[in-house]
Amino acid sequence: MPSRPLRVAQAGNDATRLREFAGYAFAAPALLAQALTHRSAGSPHNERLEFLGDALVNQFVAEALYLHWPKADEGALTRARAELVRESALAGLARELKLGEHLVLGPGEMKTGGHRRDSILADALEALVAAIHLDSGFEACRAVVLPWFAPLIEALPPPNKVGKDAKTRLQEWLQARQRALPAYALVEEGGDDHARIFRASCTLAEPAVHTEGEGSSRRAAEQQAAEAALRIIEA
Amino acid sequence: MPSRPLRVAQAGNDATRLREFAGYAFAAPALLAQALTHRSAGSPHNERLEFLGDALVNQFVAEALYLHWPKADEGALTRARAELVRESALAGLARELKLGEHLVLGPGEMKTGGHRRDSILADALEALVAAIHLDSGFEACRAVVLPWFAPLIEALPPPNKVGKDAKTRLQEWLQARQRALPAYALVEEGGDDHARIFRASCTLAEPAVHTEGEGSSRRAAEQQAAEAALRIIEA
Asked: Where in the numbering of this chain does the RNase III domain appear (chains A, B) (predicted)?
């Protein structure tokens, strides 16, 4: 990769001057500047850091879940990790840290609102984690990063429910009570060719429950209907 | 999970007595015994440890590659990591450590040669890594585990070639020299219904090269032919 020191002028862009972020003070602020630089703004950008940070986040979260749920099986741990490290979850953490305000983007990405895009925010968060790790080592990095995930870990559903979709949870609820399985039906299909809307129903025999859900696919509509049924029977 | 202290008697099974493995002496040998116990032999088995070890191995390898290839882009790093942490690579390391000899398996898995199976060996290797981590922390674990991967990292092809299949590498070789792309043709299709054999040819205009390859699918046969062509033009 050629090193192109191109830097895009941006109102309020302070990435090259920042020394501290999210309560962590960098010994090498150049690492922080790199973590906050999207590839659209030239090199050095944050793609290599993102590769390293992805593995670090995965490891921090895996270990935290292992300790948090001493009895959970591998399947529950794997599903919980997927919930915590998925793009939208990482982007949510990035927003809490106001990371978007400090991102350095190329003009095209700036115009199209790249600093608010989930993928760019999640990648930059991972890059930031790698930058802290390279700046001060694994243990110090974990001490900074784990508290970001702690509220998400606390908010997880129990191990036997985490990461399972509504249809699966509804089926398991009924099977555990030896009840008949739900019947799903397509109620309506409409919308434009490019934006179809499906409406599906979910009917239980016992307890007698009938719900409907809507979505951009038949499957999504059924999940909505199952979710509504779960809310009724678990209330 | 209920704790079932079932332990299967096995000739030469010393997992519950081992204190040291692969040059690492455990402060808590119970962790080692658990890492070496497959779920077919009862609880506590190594599935939770495998979950944690998978993340650790991923992180050790990601960091080693990041440092080993300071100029490689994210794509090359990702492909190289996939090569190093894939099941067959981990199983190969497990065999070098003679891990199979110490595995504790249930009677069914023992009869069917489970201690030689890639998936079981790779899982146990990951569990062993987690056991070392829990026994003495991240830095000590990395110091034990990274040397296992060092020869594999040294043996990687260059970043721009790693993890790319033969047809891709051949195409890139030709495009870099502005030569015509290869022509693939199916030469023969035979074998039984359940074990088809395909034979494909690869023809280059310049240099004039004609090779053939065989495989269980047309694609596999073409890859073999491309590999043969690469060996000729790169010789």
From this structure: 15-137
